[in-house]
Design goal:
The protein is α/β, with parallel strands linked by helices. It is 36% helix and 24% strand. The longest helix is centred in the C-terminal third of the chain and has 13 residues, at 122-134.
Length: 135
């Protein structure tokens, strides 16, 4: 991974999302179908409301027999670690290590709110590490 490369240079735009009213069953189906580790949770205007991870889903499953009908909003994380598109991948990597997390949400600031544009995970960073060596 070229340490000076930015999020914008390394990550394709777009992320899989849902709303707080999405059922956990719907969210889990999406995670499995897309083979992803989380969904970005959007408010009605498409701004960042939170994130729900596979771990959040497993916790909900263990906590309640009626997990499938529960809403994402009851299990999502609302304090999301975010980065900007011009942040360097090496800084993102350090952030993941320092915060003991597996992903950050790349956002664009609009009207004082955050519009999600991509998810950058530790898997993405590992991908770029191997690509750098293979070049």
């Amino acid at each position: 991974m070229k340490k000076g490369r930015t999020v914008l240079e390394a990550k394709r735009y777009g992320c899989y999302s849902c709303t707080p009213d999405t059922t956990l069953l719907e969210a889990i189906r999406r995670v499995v179908e897309e083979d992803i580790s989380c969904l970005v949770v959007l408010d009605p205007e498409g701004y960042l409301a939170g994130v729900i991870t596979r771990s959040d889903m497993v916790r909900a499953y263990l906590a309640s027999d009626d997990w499938a009908t529960q809403k994402v909003g009851d299990h999502m994380t609302t304090h999301v670690v975010t980065v900007n598109g011009d942040d360097r991948l090496s800084d993102v990597a350090q952030l993941l290590i320092d915060k003991h997390i597996h992903r950050v949400i790349a956002v664009r600031e609009e009207n004082g709110k955050q519009r999600p544009v991509a998810v950058v995970s530790d898997a993405d960073l590992v991908y770029h590490m191997i690509k750098e060596v293979e070049l």
